[in-house]
């Protein structure tokens, strides 16, 4: 059993016990408001504990296939598939009878191949060497992006067409992530410059925290004109570029 799971089981047991006590109280007093409050708190505690124990254990052993990382990868895949579906459904692909659009079942078949391909790529990504959750999260995202690219190549797409489709799908995915990161600052100030600076500072704490190679390494400078970053080491690039030679089945372009 992965290291984070015993704590999750304990949280589930405690939440169920507390909920049972609340149900008993409500049955005796006929007041169900504490039960609704308890359900909300139990669910919030459970999911917070799930993420904390699962992802937190990666600080001690980043190579462990914890429940936290399985959930993180499932979340990435759940976000990537709709982005790919939206992009591929609007693209024309070459065929024997001329350009044609992919049918929904064809898009789903391509999407289903991404996860197995990501498993093969992940074996070469040296995730155990990465210092910190944010650094690994970005490599996990890059692994899925590279896997989707490889799937399109195997389906007969040209390198240019595959890169263009993945760039558009990536834009949909990353723009939503950026909107979530910048939301607190869009709510607290109308100054675009302040929003941008605060968003960048937040991103430099997570996920682009920079402990140095093999994690992110970045020089940050800030003055009256704004904030600048100079990245000198990028974990996704370092993790995936060696796979060009390490993976024998990679298509040579």
Structural features, described:
The protein is mainly α. It has ten helices and four strands. The chain has helices at 5-29, 33-56, 67-88, 104-112, 114-122, 133-154, 159-188, 192-205, 235-240, 243-246; strands at residues 92-93, 100-101, 217-223, 226-233. The strands form two sheets. The protein has a two-stranded antiparallel sheet. A two-stranded antiparallel sheet has the order 3-4. α3 packs across α6. The chain is globular and about 70 Å long. The two termini are 42 Å apart. Residues 1-8, 53-63 and 244-253 have low confidence and may be disordered.
Helix content: 55-70%
Structural class: mainly alpha
Rg from Cα: 22 Å
Task: Let me know the average pLDDT.
Answer: 78
Low confidence ranges: 1-8, 53-63, 244-253
Q: What amount of the residues lies in strands?
A: 5-15%
Strand order of the largest sheet: 1-2
Distance between the termini: 42 Å
The coarse silhouette is: globular
Order of H and E elements? HHHEEHHHHHEEHH
Largest β-sheet summary? 2 strands, antiparallel
- How many helical stretches? 10
What is the β-strand count? 4
